[in-house]
Amino acid sequence: MKRREAITELGDALRTLAEHATTTEMPAGDLLRAAAELREIAARLGERSRGRSTLPSADDLLGGVRMYNPVTGGGSALAPPLRIEVVAGVAIGRCTLGLAFEGPPRFAHGGVSAMLLDQILGHAVVASGNPGMTVRLDTVYRAPVPLLTPLRLTAEVRHVDGRRVTATGTIATEAEPGTTLVSASGTFVGLRADQTRRLFGPVLQTEA
Ligand SMILES: CCCCCCCCCC(=O)SCCNC(=O)CCNC(=O)[C@H](O)C(C)(C)COP(=O)(O)OP(=O)(O)OC[C@H]1O[C@@H](n2cnc3c(N)ncnc32)[C@H](O)[C@@H]1OP(=O)(O)O
What we know:
Elements: H1 3-23, H2 28-45, E1 83-87, E2 90-95, H3 110-127, E3 133-141, E4 151-161, E5 164-173, E6 182-189, H4 193-207
Antiparallel strand pairs: 1-2, 2-4, 3-6, 4-5, 5-6
This protein binds decanoyl-CoA (MFK).
């Protein structure tokens, strides 16, 4: 099995683990045994690991492959994961949030909605040919986002003004795509070459 597939397999197992660890009602003894076993597995995985300034060997930064992105990465224990495709400049995302993402009972945490929107807005911005970093994200929570329910997100670029790009996006359910639950407007700023060097220089050197 190729390494990326193995990373995704481990990510799937970790996401299942996070969901079951969130929903389990097993007694204390079982939880302590599980914790001890998991610490052993964690120690084994940590025997060979990378630091902050080294990209994952399975990533292709310039090709857009980020295996551990906390929103879209197949290898991330934190990612729903959100699957995004860009069609005619519109980013369309799909995911289902489990109980690990609960804020108010039965519904998603508001910060999770903002995280999903930041990511999908970013994809629309990159697809427009004006990549940049988020400098502002305004979210409007119109209705709570239900857990364990297929979701549909959209995003598109509205305005490009020099280095500054504005994009908007929404979260709805797959069943009612016309009913916006959360909307967002984001401002992204393209980096100057000196800013790219300052922020990402060490990583780009290892990539080259
Ligand atoms: C396919 C893969 C897709 C990947 C998607 C990933 C999505 C996720 C994206 C993120 O989450 S990025 C992480 C969160 N963002 C950051 O950490 C960025 C932190 N901010 C910075 O480091 C600096 O703001 C930055 C280097 C981006 C820009 O610094 P500058 O000093 O160059 O900004 P400057 O103050 O000169 O402003 C540049 C322009 O942006 C405007 N601007 C800056 N901050 C703003 C703001 N908060 N709101 C509105 N406009 C703003 C500013 O007015 C100005 O407009 P003009 O050029 O028209 O004068």
